[in-house]
Amino acid sequence: MTSLLQARRLSKTAYSALWSLPLPVWLAGFFLGPMVLLIWLSFWDVKNFLLTPDFQLENWQKILTAGYFWSAYARTAVIAASASVLATLAALPCALAISFFLSPRARMVLLGLFVVPFFTSYLVRIYSWQIYLTENGIVMKLMAAIGIETGSLLNTPLALMVGLVTLTLPLVIVIQAISLLSLDRTLIDAAYNLGCGPRRVLFATVLPAARPGIVLGALFAFIFSFGDFVTATYLGGGKFTTLSILIADTVKSGQQWPRAAVVALMMIVTLLLTALASITYAYRRS
Amino acid sequence: MAKTTLTRRSLLKTSAMAAGALAMPMIARAQSVTEMTMLAWYGQAEPDAVAEFEELHNVKITPKYYVGGEQMLALLAQSPAGTYDLIHADAEYVQQLVRANFVEKLDPEDYPFDDFYPEFHKFPGHWHDDELYAVISRFGFLGISHNLDAVSVKEAMSYDMLWDAKHKDKVGHFDWHLPNLGVLSLRDGNAQPYDIGEGAWDRLQDTTLSLKPQVRGFYDYGGVLSSLKSGEVTVMPGIGEWITGVLRRDGANVTTTIPEQGGIQFTESFSIGRGSRKTDLARKFIQHASSPAGQYNLANLNVFPAIIPSKSGWERMIAEKPEDARHLGMFKGDGNAIDLIRKGRIHIRQLPVQQDLGDWNDFWSAYKSA
């Protein structure tokens, strides 16, 4: 009897282990492995345009003391933070409407529609924005029709924001909407019963309760914007050197993959710290 | 008389035999096709560039494209000898190909140098210790490329126009330091734009940084084409007919002017890869590319037009495509491409002599971030 129980327990443990296996395997194969390789690569040397295994600190020293690295770093952080705030603010009314004012059927249709942009390549969507924003493009012509003369909007901070919000907005809306939909509705009823007006219900009950979703949405927008290369290149015209552009430049000239690895590691560390701080804040007891 | 019946099995058997018989010449032909590999800049081994040779010699050329000479060197360094039969490279990288032992020596007697203008009989970048390693295929000049609706040829005769307030936010850059810093070095008055001392290098950096407020953006090949075509950018230093020639085919009113301070020359060439087992065929390819017919073809490649060193090729261009020939500088008389070289207005693009290539690259990154 005891041995039967032990066998059953063992089989259950093996069963759970089998189901849990893909996650650590995936993490080891696609995150930890490449990460270790990247760290190792950052100490290598390049001799005659050929990567040579080595252990030297020169790449770190070169990048961390370069003024252009820190200016690109600050610029990337500011651009990503701005896009994140913009996407969060633009998504919020949309997510509130989806969660509280639409019928379940309409809600499903609309959430489905927000997934549609992902069917088209991001690069194609950014190229199509060029047609709108370029010299004598659609936006310039529409503005002229209503009497406002503008120059080309390409290669401006506005174009950068348009591209990054195009990338992140649908995802932020979906995350926020899921968070708002899972809200305990009795909290809202209780707030009304206690005499709160709609504005106070929104700011004192709904938004604090939906904080994890709002913060996570903003975090995803920041992560995608921080590492984006396409918008910075094709809507920013390479004029706003971000860290992704710096990586491409570093590799392009001199085949300096080790120095590019240093830039990439600095980006990863920044994103890990940002994610840690954001998640701590999102789930902090207020 | 024996009775013959057409069964399903016999029908299938007969059909298979017939199909086999019909396909035999194609199979035999396919078996005899020789494959030759070519490491080349994008577009240089497309059908318009190689189909004629492929047909003549029953060869299939398989290209491996690269973007930038350093990527080419890295690809060669990572591949075993003999991977590439033909190497298409810019002149400034041929010396590095030689030093790294990536290319075979060539016999000058094999190629029609007599038909080339004298300036290309012994092109410096292609020879090392009096031995030939590369044969020039075509070349072009880099100066100021501009939209003629916004900038006249007269105005473009000086690089100083780039700083003119009316071109603020209308100056674009092809995103590569070597041609841009080369032409700005000429603007600074450096007789040898790539061989400059520390003082001149500091001055060049100041000159370049002072241009940044005028700059609209930094573009790759596609971006250069679209920004000049749309009018987003009206003037670009450091590019040439390899861009404006393509845009003009599409109806754009653009051209390239070589300012009085001078222009930069890029030079393409073919070499035979070290360890190639098809050196005879590779040599025939280079001979074909150097022949009058091959040269005429190279001047008109779809990827972009360029000037050719062959005198016979010039004659044919002037006779058959006078307008294209004129824009490229292939015409008789004063001001043609050879005349500009002889007058000393053209300087060959090369790697920095007194600074490390990394220094130029770091400065370009800093300039873009400024």
Tell me briefly what this model is.
With 286 residues, chain A is mainly alpha-helical.
Fill in the keyword field for this structure.
heterodimer; A: 286 residues; mainly alpha; MetI-like fold; two-stranded antiparallel sheet; flat; B: 370 residues; alpha/beta; D-Maltodextrin-Binding Protein, domain 2; 2 domains; 8-stranded mixed beta sheet; two-stranded antiparallel ribbon; 14 helices; 12 strands; 42% helix; globular
Task: Give a structural overview.
The complex is a heterodimer of chains A (286) and B (370). Chain A is an all-alpha fold. Chain A folds into two domains: 41 residues; 227 residues, MetI-like (MetI-like fold, Orthogonal Bundle). Chain A is 75% helix and 2% strand. Chain A contains 14 helices and two strands; from the N terminus they run ααββαααααααααααα. Chain A has a two-stranded antiparallel ribbon with strand order 1-2. In chain A, strand 1 and strand 2 form a beta hairpin. The radius of gyration of chain A is 24 Å and the shape is flat. Chain A starts with a helix and ends with a helix. The model of chain A has no long low-confidence stretch (mean pLDDT 92). With 370 residues, chain B is α/β, with parallel strands linked by helices. Chain B has two domains: 176 residues, Periplasmic binding protein-like II (D-Maltodextrin-Binding Protein, domain 2), CATH 3.40.190; 147 residues, Periplasmic binding protein-like II (D-Maltodextrin-Binding Protein, domain 2). In chain B, strands 1, 2, 3, 6, 9, 10, 11 and 12 form an eight-stranded mixed beta sheet that branches. In chain B, helix 7 crosses helix 8 and helix 10 crosses helix 11. The radius of gyration of chain B is 24 Å and the shape is globular. The N and C termini of chain B lie far apart (97 Å). At the A-B interface, helix 4 and helix 13 of A face helix 3, strand 8, helix 7 and helix 14 of B.
Helix and strand topology:
The complex is a heterodimer of chains A (286) and B (370).
Chain A: H1 2-20, H2 22-41, E1 45-47, E2 50-52, H3 58-64, H4 67-100, H5 104-115, H6 122-133, H7 138-145, H8 157-181, H9 185-193, H10 198-209, H11 211-226, H12 230-234, H13 243-252, H14 257-282
Antiparallel strand pairs in A: 1-2
Chain B: H1 8-32, E1 34-41, H2 47-57, E2 59-66, H3 69-77, E3 86-90, H4 91-99, E4 127-128, E5 131-132, E6 135-147, E7 171-174, H5 177-187, H6 198-211, E8 215-219, H7 221-230, E9 235-240, H8 241-249, E10 254-257, E11 263-272, H9 279-290, H10 292-299, H11 311-320, H12 322-328, H13 337-342, E12 346-348, H14 357-369
Parallel strand pairs in B: 1-2, 1-3, 7-8, 11-12
Antiparallel strand pairs in B: 3-11, 4-5, 6-9, 6-10, 6-11
